[in-house]
């Protein structure tokens, strides 16, 4: 399944701890304040070693079918990550998380990666529903959900703890039967 070619520009791959940790850490460190606004875990990534430990743990979780974190490569350069943060086996659901370094925004990369993750989730993990949760104020993430034809299920009050306190969170979902009836590749990227 991996590496997984999304298109001529984008590939998803399992993390190579020795190779990817430094590049991912550098992307985070160069744009720490912007990324940390929406992803509080960034404050814990203080060294390349922290990233290595995280990637090592994510590979263990992958082997145990608990989660899936993959590295996004754009024209061969490491651009960020996208993940299924956890699988709910009883409900056949998973939620998607993602981030990109600042130099990789504005190219439709996350939109295309989410489409790729939908295929992986529905076809390889037997998911029935895939979820995107985003703070109401996180316009970029909410726009990804809209562009990928996710359904806004509702707003959960004070459901996301960010660095500046609790925020209301939009919960978006896409069902397997909706994916089958939509042509996602017709969206302009």
Automatic annotation (TrEMBL):
<dbReference type="InterPro" id="IPR000182">
    <property type="entry name" value="GNAT_dom"/>
</dbReference>
<protein>
    <submittedName>
        <fullName>GNAT family N-acetyltransferase</fullName>
    </submittedName>
</protein>
<dbReference type="Pfam" id="PF13302">
    <property type="entry name" value="Acetyltransf_3"/>
</dbReference>
<dbReference type="InterPro" id="IPR016181">
    <property type="entry name" value="Acyl_CoA_acyltransferase"/>
</dbReference>
<feature type="domain" description="N-acetyltransferase">
    <location>
        <begin position="22"/>
        <end position="177"/>
    </location>
</feature>
<dbReference type="InterPro" id="IPR051908">
    <property type="entry name" value="Ribosomal_N-acetyltransferase"/>
</dbReference>
């Amino acid at each position: 399944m991996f590496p997984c070619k999304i298109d001529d520009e984008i590939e998803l791959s399992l993390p190579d701890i020795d190779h990817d940790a430094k590049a991912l850490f550098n992307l985070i460190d160069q744009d720490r304040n912007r990324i940390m606004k929406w992803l509080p875990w960034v404050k814990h990534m203080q060294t390349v070693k922290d990233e290595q430990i995280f990637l090592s743990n994510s590979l263990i979780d992958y082997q145990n079918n608990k989660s899936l974190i993959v590295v996004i490569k754009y024209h061969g350069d490491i651009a960020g990550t996208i993940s299924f943060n956890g699988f709910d086996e009883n409900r056949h659901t998973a939620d998607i998380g993602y981030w990109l370094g600042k130099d990789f925004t504005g190219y439709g990369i996350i939109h295309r990666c989410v489409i790729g993750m939908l295929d992986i989730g529905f076809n390889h993990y037997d998911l029935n529903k895939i979820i995107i949760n985003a703070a109401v104020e996180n316009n970029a993430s909410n726009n990804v959900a809209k562009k990928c034809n996710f359904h806004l299920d509702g707003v959960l009050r004070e459901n996301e703890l960010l660095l500046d306190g609790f925020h209301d969170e939009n919960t978006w979902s896409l069902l397997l039967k909706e994916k089958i009836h939509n042509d996602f590749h017709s969206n302009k990227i």
